[in-house]
Structure formats: structure tokens, C-alpha cells
Write a structure and sequence with these properties.
- By secondary structure, this protein is of the alpha+beta class.
- It has one domain: endopeptidase fold (from Nostoc punctiforme) (Alpha-Beta Complex), CATH 3.90.1720.
- 42% of the residues lie in helices and 14% in strands.
- β2 and β3 form a beta hairpin.
- The protein is globular.
Length: 168
């Protein structure tokens, strides 16, 4: 297992009903992956992750075991890493919204609901993958060029990292 550095994305498996829900959702929208959760390593043994109770900063050892890190797959400078970590920490306390999953599903199915999209954009709520993508975006790094930053799932991050790993 790679040792994470600040700003790295970690992908994890989660069990129970929540993990099953994410698995089915990712399969339904065509991005099934062996992971159901994403987090950002911010240094000093701490990670930031979006949870149904709101985004939190916790010790890495209390998070679900990471099965894949973005370490050395995304070219980041020390300044990039600092900004990503600071942005992730700034998102602590951000509420969670299951409506974002509906928005992603509808978009992938070709149903473009302006009302739901505007709600997602204005709500200030984030799911785990959105938190990671937003922390990078605020640091000036667009992981998914041309895509709405709220449309990514943990599966999308997994597929991005696997592609980067293959091309490395």
C-alpha cells in the first residue's frame, strides 16, 4: 500500500446498507467499481470525508481501509497538495445530500433536470466524491474537464485513477 501524502485521494470499500446502496447506484449509472467511498488525506494522519452527518476530519485509522490512493498518479506540486488539503479542511461541516445521487443518476440517464441541477449547485451539500473533486477544483486542478463537478461518483474517481495508473 502506498503511503499517502497531503492532497491524495483515497478510495475505500464500505459495507452494510450504505455500501450496497452506492454499489447499486454506481452499477445503475454505468460506473460500477470495487469502491464506494472517497476521502482526501490532509496530512498528520488525518483525512476529510463527506458523511451523512456532514463532512468530517478524522484520523486515517478511523476511516474505512483505503484500497487505492492517488499518490503519484496525479501530478501535484507541494503547493497543489497544500491547497487541496486546505480546501478539503475548509469543507468540514458541509452537509450531505442524497439528492445529489438522484441528480447524477438522472444526468447519466439523459434526463437533464434544470431544477434538480440548480438545487445541487446551490445547496452547498456534498457527497464524498464531490468533496474530493471540489477540493481539487478549488486548488485549480480539474480532474474531469468539461464535466459538472457534482456529477462524479467514487466509481468515477476509481476509473480515473485506474486510467492514470495504466498510462503511467
Amino acid at each position: 500500500m502506498t503511503e499517502p501524502r497531503p492532497g491524495d485521494i483515497g478510495l475505500t470499500k464500505i459495507g452494510g446498507l450504505a455500501g450496497a446502496f452506492v454499489n447499486v447506484g454506481q452499477w445503475f449509472v454505468g460506473d460500477f467499481a470495487p469502491v464506494q467511498h472517497a476521502l482526501v488525506y490532509v496530512g498528520n494522519g488525518m483525512v476529510v470525508q463527506a458523511m451523512p452527518s456532514g463532512a468530517e476530519m478524522i484520523p486515517l485509522e478511523k476511516a474505512s481501509p483505503v484500497v487505492m490512493w492517488s499518490t503519484d498518479l496525479i501530478d501535484l506540486t507541494p503547493v497543489d497538495r497544500l491547497y487541496i488539503s486546505e480546501n478539503a479542511i475548509d469543507l468540514v461541516g458541509t452537509p450531505y445530500s442524497f439528492l445529489d445521487y438522484l441528480s447524477i443518476a438522472l444526468e447519466r440517464l439523459g434526463v437533464h433536470s434544470k431544477l434538480i441541477r440548480e438545487r445541487v449547485m446551490s445547496s452547498g451539500h456534498l457527497i464524498c466524491s464531490q468533496l474530493c473533486v471540489l477540493a481539487y477544483e478549488r486548488a485549480g486542478i480539474d480532474l474531469f474537464p468539461g464535466q459538472f463537478p457534482g456529477d462524479q461518483t467514487p466509481g468515477d474517481l476509481y476509473h480515473l485513477l485506474k486510467e492514470l495508473e495504466t498510462n503511467a
